[in-house]
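Hello again, I could really use a second opinion on something today. I've been staring at a protein lately and its backbone has me curious. Please have a think about how the structure follows from the sequence. I owe you a coffee for this, so here goes:
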Amino acid sequence: MSQQASAMAPASSSADSLASSLSSSAAKQTAPISFQPTGLQGAKRRIVYVGLYEAIAIAVSSAIFMAIGQNASDSGVMAVVASVIAICWNLLFNYLFEKWESSQTVKGRSILRRVVHAIGFEGGIAAMLIPLMAWWFNITLWEAAVMEAGLLVFFMVYTFAFNWVFDRLFGLPASAQAMAQ
């Protein structure tokens, strides 16, 4: 009798294990998939991103303005004002970009997606800064456009490189991460 009972125990245990596995499987299929993105996310990500990006941008912009002949005080003020405008634009543009990006079926940030991001951001900022620089530096719109074109080339490369390095250091935003299954 005891041999029969011990022989049945593994079978019973296996049946219980199989039933438990099947019910666990069913629960997984009906339970909603929760997605926990990795890396720095949300408002904290945007604040760190904008703070680092603009601190570097102010220093470089001031140096570029002075290198092309503008005086130091005008260059510094213009760099700070441009930075404030850029911060507002950056927050709005990245919010809209990430909203669009989250609706895409292909996740991640390819080279093409990064180029589109950089062009969209820099095109918008150029449209705002050209008239402002013309007025501030007392130059023509054409001269401001040429000045902005030089800055645009630098900032296009800078934006692309900064985003790439930032994503490597802090992880991709949730909008660009593939959901684990």
The radius of gyration is 27 Å.
